[in-house]
Amino acid sequence: MTQSKHTKGLENIESLYGEMGANGLKTNAKLAPKFDEYICDFAYGDIYSRQSLSLLQKQIVTISSLITQGCVPKELKMHIHGGLNAGLTEEQILDICVHCLPYVGFPRVTNALEIAHQAFEERKPK
Fold first, then answer.
1. Which of 3, 34, 61, 125 has its CA 20 to 30 A from that of 50?
2. What DSSP string runs through 37-106?
């Protein structure tokens, strides 16, 4: 029997974000009816379950996309954590940000670098 999209989505969220992902789903559930299900089932159950890219590669694409959008600090930070959990190094995250510079400009990349450093700090033992 195949796994449901919801089950696959929950597994992908747990793999990338751990407790942070579960908390994010709870927060999203409060925003609008079924919003958490759309994120879990579609984004992580359908899209993240495709096999041609690794989770690490998917995080590179997602981080780059969020940098280009700008004004999405919460989502960018979450995916930076996910990228680190998928195997990216801090140096690679910073290089992803800098690589976007010629395409999106200094303000968006500066913001992305600041968010990346916030994520790095959050991961340090207290």
1. 34
2. HIIIIIIIIIITT-SSS-HHHHHHHHHHHHHHH-S-HHHHHHHHHHHHHHT--HHHHHHHHHHTHHHH-H
Specify the amino acid at residue 21.
G
Cβ(60)–Cβ(102) under 8 Å? no
- Domains of the chain, CATH where assigned: 1-52 (no CATH), 53-126 (1.20.1290.10)
Taking the C-alpha atoms of residue 89 and residue 30, their distance in angstroms, rounded to an integer, is: 33
Per-residue pLDDT reduced to its tens digit, 48-103: 999 999 999 999 999 999 999 999 999 999 999 999 999 999 999 999 999 999 99
> For position 2, what pLDDT does the model report?
65
Q: How far apart are CA 54 and CA 32, in angstroms?
A: 31
Q: How far apart are CA 68 and CA 36, in angstroms?
A: 24
